[in-house]
Amino acid sequence: MKEDYTPWTSVQVKQVRLSLGLTLKEMAALIGMSDVNLHYIEQGKHSLGYDYIAILEDDYGLSTQRVNRLMRQYHAEQSAETDKERAAAKLDKIKLGKKR
C-alpha cells in the first residue's frame, strides 16, 4: 500500500545511489526501470513511484532510517577536506547496519 511508504526526493534517490557506489544502470536494474527514467527522476522531472520505493525498502532494506544515514554519509564524504576525513567517511559505510 502506498501509505506504507515515504516518498523519496530526487536528491535522495541520487545521493543514495552515489553513496552505495551504484551507476544509473545498476540502480535502475535493481528496481526494474530504465536508466533513462531513473535519470529523469534524479533530475526532478519525474518522481519515484511507490512500487519502486517498495522494492528498495522491502527487497533491499533501504528504510527511511537507512536512507537518512546514507544521506549523512554521502554529505560527510563530499565535505571531507583531507584524505583522513574521506577515509573515515568511507569506513562509516561499514557501520550503516549497526546502531550508534
Topology:
Layout (H helix, E strand, L loop, with lengths): L9 H10 L4 H8 L3 H8 L7 H10 L4 H16 L3 H9 L9
Provide a brief overview of the structure.
This protein is an all-alpha fold and 100 residues long. 61% of the residues lie in helices and 0% in strands.
Outline, from the CA principal axes? Answer: globular
CATH architecture term: Orthogonal Bundle
**Percentage of residues assigned to helices:** 55-70%
Q: Please tell me how large the radius of gyration is.
A: 14 Å
So how many helices?
6
| Average predicted local confidence, pLDDT | 87
CATH superfamily: lambda repressor-like DNA-binding domains
Structural class: mainly alpha
Q: Could you characterize the architecture of this molecule?
A:
- With 100 residues, the chain is an all-alpha fold.
- The protein is 61% helix and 0% strand.
- It has a single domain (7-97), classed as lambda repressor-like DNA-binding domains (434 Repressor (Amino-terminal Domain), Orthogonal Bundle).
- It has six helices and no strands.
- Helix 1 packs across helix 5 and helix 5 packs antiparallel against helix 6 (83-91).
- The N and C termini lie far apart (31 Å).
- 21% of the residues are buried.
